[in-house]
Amino acid sequence: MNYKLLALDMDGTLLTSQKKILPRTLTAITELSRRGIYVVTSTGRNLSELVDFREELKPMHFGILISGGMVFDFKNDKPIKVHGLDEKTILQLIDFGLEERAMIHLHTVRHSIAREDDINHMDNFAMGIYRDMFSRICLRCDDFKKFVREHPGEVIKVNLYHRSEESRDRNLARIQPLNLSISFAEAFNLEMSPANITKGSGLVELCDFLKIDISEAVAIGDSFNDREILQTAGLGVAMGNASDEIKRLADFVTLDNDHDGVAAAIEKFF
Q1: Which pTM was predicted?
Q2: Which of 105, 111, 131, 247 could form a disulfide with 159 if both were Cys (CB 3.0 to 4.6 A apart)?
């Protein structure tokens, strides 16, 4: 199969456990792009959360961002597709987060929004590895409801980072009746997007935009929020560090993210 597009998850896939891109993997994606293959990121992150990788991501012209909530054209610095949450739902999610003393994290087209105190105590939410990034890139907000009302239509995804699995599961039970796309990539978090918006739907939108058949796309991921894109792409590749569930639904399992799993998959299939 002559694949024309490669979609790469970031955390746990393109990035090592220390949030780095290994030289062999960077060389592989750069060479793939040079050959005319579209290499795109497929991530729960938004634009501000990619700033530390600006140089490494230069070979990528497009991104499926915010868990499919936005398809973005990096070269022209503009969204291709944006799917926002409605205000009523966002306010409900904020209430659920406050009730569980969770860290609330809002995504807009260009920004991350969180509370200063939560950023300073991200270890409490099993998110300590992200503290440095959040402290540098987040807009601070103490009144999330006021922010939402003053920025209508701008919030694309709500993340709730919980203090325990039990706390997360209580909110999962509250949120499930709301007809949202719910995923998670970290220990105790929940990520809420509009119904039917996933990385898989973002891949379909990008392939339509580029006039590429979905069978010509390869996706690589490791976590629950990669499930749909691995099932949607013509070829789904799970990282060696992925959960057993993700490995079972993938077409192929590569090496883990600390041993150039992405480069190994590129060398095998491209």
Answers
A1: 0.90
A2: 105
